[in-house]
Amino acid sequence: MKNNLQIGDLGEKKLIEIIEDLVLKKTGKELLKDDSFFFEFKGKKFDGNIIFNSDMLVSTTDVPSLMSSYQIGKKSVLMNISDLLVKGVKPRGIIISFGLPKELKKTEFVDVLNGVIDSCMKFDMDYIGGDLNETKELIINPTVFGFKKPSSIIYRKGIKVGDILIANNKFGLTGVGFDILINKKGDLHDFPKYKRSIMSILKPELTGIEAFILSERNLATSSIDSSDGLSKSLEDLMLSNPNIGFELDFNENLIDKEAVQYSNEFNVSLEELVLNGGEEFIHIFTLDPKDLNKAQNEIQSKNGHLFRIGKIISEENIFIIKESERKEIKSHGFEHFREKG
User: Fold this and answer.
1) Hey, which CATH number is domain 164-328, 1.10.287.130, 3.20.20.140, 3.30.70.270, 3.90.650.10?
2) Phi, psi (deg, nearest 5) at residue 319
3) Under CATH, what is the fold of the domain 2-152?
């Protein structure tokens, strides 16, 4: 009977107790009971910036039907951490607020919490506190923060014509995963050959090693997280850097082989899978070509990855170079409040 308890049966006070007890059990740290939340930065005199990011997870737009409650909790944190990591910033703490439908089961809420806390522990990030409210659907609104000297932050602005475009992973897996889960209503049982693609949606992973090295060595001229899709991310870089554009090499450095296989088998546009998949949490950088070998050597020595995927040009457009042909592309990356199609 207790396993069928819903959020509406518990009330806010009991839910806060569940959060406090689980955070203490898993991390050994008590949550502060106060009107505001405080984080003590211990260390040498610090003259840098505090860097924040807050991306909201909303169940109707961000959660595929096959995603478990635990995976939802993990994703809500990872999508925020990624935007700090790509700047070369180590996340230090999180304040997280929940909008909860009263029909949500207690067991599901605890699973969400476990996903949140496990992600915090993986990145050595303190869970500080947050808020609870009743909503029509599950909403998770984290705010993560870290510290960094301004001179070591990799900003979006700073690209020069002649720079090269690099990424820490290959594109296309999430495009395949979303096509299977949403368009074909399939799962791992139906598409066993595409496990990596499906798990890229249900269980995304990310690393910040590449950005940390590039930021500490001052090698990158810009960076951006690709969670809105590759083409949309490049458009965002163009907005921050007028009078530049991109040429993408549409080859094995850019494209995961599983996306090529899926495109061929099901006659799905490979360009669409690669350019507009979204939610890859791949980190994109630009750098001076003379620094490429140094960056690759240092990143590979730390088991990181770096793929050269294109270059920066003076034309204010995005092109792909495919089989020696040059083609302009238009963005269809994800954007809230716009009709799909």
Assistant:
1) 3.90.650.10
2) -125, 150
3) 60s Ribosomal Protein L30; Chain: A; (3.30.1330)
For the chain, how big is the Rg over CA atoms in Å? 21
- Alpha carbon distances (Å) from 67 to 55, 186, 278, 327: 19, 13, 17, 36
Residues of the chain with CATH 3.90.650.10: 164-328
Q: What's the distance, Cα to Cα, between the start and end of the chain in Å?
A: 45
Query: What's the pLDDT tens digit per position in 268-309?
Result: 999 999 999 989 999 999 999 999 999 999 999 999 999 999
- The tokens describing 4, both together, are 């069928």
Pick from 308, 296, 311: nearest CA to 254: 308
Where do the CATH 3.30.1330.10 domains begin and end in the chain? 2-152
How remote is the C-alpha of 248 from its chain's centroid?
21
Instruction: Say which residues have a Cβ less than 8 Å from residue 94's Cβ, sequence separation at least 6.
Output: 77, 80, 120, 125, 126, 127, 128, 142, 143, 144, 145
pTM reported for the whole predicted model: 0.89
Q: Which residues pair with 286 in a beta bridge?
A: 165, 222
User: Which of the residues in the chain have pLDDT under 50?
Assistant: 1, 336-341
Name the residue type at position 332.
Answer: H
Task: Pick the closest to residue 91 from 22, 39, 167 (CA basis).
Answer: 39
Q: Read off the tokens for 103.
A: 């029909």
Per the CB < 8 A criterion, the answer to whether 221 and 158 are in contact is: yes
Tokens of 212: 């940390």
Which residue intervals of 28-68 are DSSP H helices? 59-62
**pLDDT (0 to 100) of residue 35:** 56
- 162 vs 151: CA distance, rounded Å: 22
Nearest partner of 52 among 122, 142, 125, judged by Cα: 142
Q: Where are the alpha helices (DSSP H) in the chain?
A: 7-10, 12-27, 59-62, 69-85, 106-122, 173-178, 195-202, 209-216, 230-240, 257-266, 270-275, 292-301
